[in-house]
Amino acid sequence: MTTTTAPDILGQALLAYHHGQAEAALTVHCNVADDEPLPAAYFFRTLLQMPELERLALDECRGRVLDLGAGAGCHSLELQSRGFDVKAVDVSAGAVQVMTERGVRTVARHDLFAPLPANERPYDTIVLLMNGLGLTGSLAGLDKFLVHARTLLAPGGQILATSSDVRYLYEDEDGALMLNLNGPYYGEVEYSLSYNGNTGASFPWLFVDAALLNDAAEAAGYTADFLGEDDDEQYLVRLTPIAS
Q1: What rounded mean pLDDT belongs to the chain?
Q2: What are 76-85's pLDDT values in tens digits?
Q3: Are 68 and 126 in contact (CB under 8 A)?
Q4: CA-CA-CA-CA torsion for 69, 112, 87, 224, nearest 10 degrees?
Q5: What kind and span of H or E run contains 79?
Q6: Which of the residues 63, 68, 118, 199 could staple to 194 if both were Cys, CB 3.0 to 4.6 A apart?
Q7: With contact defined as beta carbons under 8 Å apart, do 67 and 127 qualify?
Q8: Can you say how many angstroms the Cα of residue 65 is from the centroid of all Cα atoms in its chain?
Q9: Tens-place pLDDT, residues 158-185
């Protein structure tokens, strides 16, 4: 019996761009929106190319930093340049290879629920950028991550994360919301990625509105401080565990 591994679509595109294919681009498929192109170059942006909320998040980092869903490592590299001790994590083998080749000093391949290795000190800051809370996949996954994150954080630590309210996707021409109140939460969506004629497996992604995130944080024993919001309904939040 042979097992097949799902193609690393993101990693293929990142490697192609990193190795000189400047026009490399993914196609993003979503169950609640039209297909969209996503240039691989976006994962390699410099500080000046980053949205204001991302730059603010980097400015708010302190201590040892854990960059979850690090992609091509643009945030980790910027933090390294500022003297931070950073560990960059991604599930994509291609992304991990790209980050290593680009000079990110500490890189690991696993998801955000992996336990802290026995020989590793906890972190002062966890960053989840590019709508990074989406990696939790669902409201249940968000609750699970908030519990797990306590095992990754040092005393006085913080999570800096971005997410968005996507209710605008469900508005009709008059601005009325067309939501199925008996269905799943409207911010729980399904994505898949295509590159170079191949499509990867679908994966869940969470866009959580600020009020619901605040409730989840409170239930998990965190304070939520909303640090900024942009014109696309995306926000940056600082989650700080309340000392027990």
Answers
A1: 92
A2: 999 999 999 9
A3: yes
A4: 90
A5: helix 74-81
A6: 199
A7: yes
A8: 15
A9: 999 999 988 766 666 666 666 666 778 8
Residue 41 carries which DSSP code? G
Task: Report residue 89's pLDDT band, with 50, 70 and 90 as the boundaries.
Answer: very high
Q: Enter the tokens of residue 138.
A: 């669902």
Q: Are 77 and 104 in contact (CB under 8 A)?
A: yes
CA 54 distance to own-chain centroid: 11
Domain spanning 50-189+199-241, CATH class: alpha beta
List CB contacts of 71: < 8 A, sequence separation 6 or more.
Answer: 10, 14, 43, 90, 92, 95, 130
Question: Which sequence spans correspond to the domains of the chain?
Answer: 50-189+199-241
Sign of CA dihedral 223, 229, 233, 234: negative
> What's the CA gap between 230 and 105, in Å, rounded?
32
In this prediction the pTM is 0.92
Give me the pLDDT at residue 183, please.
73
With beta carbons less than 8 A apart as the criterion, state whether 81 and 102 touch.
Answer: no
Inter-CA distances, 97 with 6, 67, 108, 120, 225, Å: 17, 16, 10, 22, 35
Residues β-bridged to residue 214? none
For residues 103 and 106, give the distance between their C-alpha atoms in angstroms, rounded to a whole number. 9
Residue type, 5: T
pLDDT per position as a tens digit, 25-83: 999 999 888 899 999 999 999 999 999 999 999 999 999 999 999 999 999 999 999 99
